[in-house]
Amino acid sequence: MIDSIFCAHGGIPPPWFNGGLISVINDIPKPLPNPERDSPLAWELMWNDPINSESISTPLEETPEDKTGFLPNTKRGTAHVFTADALEHFLTSNGLSHVIRAHEVQQAGFKVQLNGKLLTVFSSSKYCGGSNEAACILADRLKLRMIRIDTS
């Protein structure tokens, strides 16, 4: 089970980095004092976010970049957003089943997205004075167990 799940802070890499294969991640230089400049791949792994197709206001056939399921992340002003199709391509290409990420506050502490194959987990409650709960994942006996922490 553990070998079939990809974990990242932000999201999946676009296919223009070695076809989106995770093997290229080992080539990220370490230490990495300036990821935006020194490793665009690391930057994408930190800042990419999922997006539901319904949230896209224009059709996804306008540029070659759009056809990959990756679009500029206008919300953050950096990196990209990725669709369910992009996620499915990444999972299939890498022999994976799911992605677990963090990076975005979730009111309930977690959110299941993109056809149930992407899980966002946020472990900090009341982030920046907000009212969100916290969550974590326990990998136990070949199962993922979601633990939501009620901090109200």
Report low-confidence residues grouped into runs of 5 or more. none
Let me know the number of strands. Answer: 9
- Order of strands, main sheet, comes to 1-5-7-6
Radius of gyration: 16 Å
Structural class: alpha/beta
Tally of alpha and pi helices: 4
Secondary-structure element sequence?
A: EHHEHEEHEEEEE
For the terminal residues, how far apart are their CA atoms?
A: 33 Å
Based on Cα principal axes, name the global outline.
globular
User: Strand portion, in percent?
Assistant: 25-35%
Mean pLDDT: 89
Largest sheet: 4 strands, mixed
Approximate helicity band: 10-25%
Q: Concise description?
A:
With 152 residues, this protein is α/β, with parallel strands linked by helices. The chain contains four helices and nine strands, in the order βααβαββαβββββ.
Key attributes of the depicted protein:
single chain; 152 residues; globular; 4-stranded mixed beta sheet; 9 strands; 4 helices; 3-stranded mixed beta sheet; alpha/beta
Describe the protein.
By secondary structure, the chain is α/β, with parallel strands linked by helices. It is built from four helices and nine strands; from the N terminus they run E-H-H-E-H-E-E-H-E-E-E-E-E. The chain has a four-stranded mixed β-sheet. Strand 3 and strand 4 (80-82) form a beta hairpin. The longest helix has 11 residues, at 84-94. It is globular. The mean pLDDT is 89.
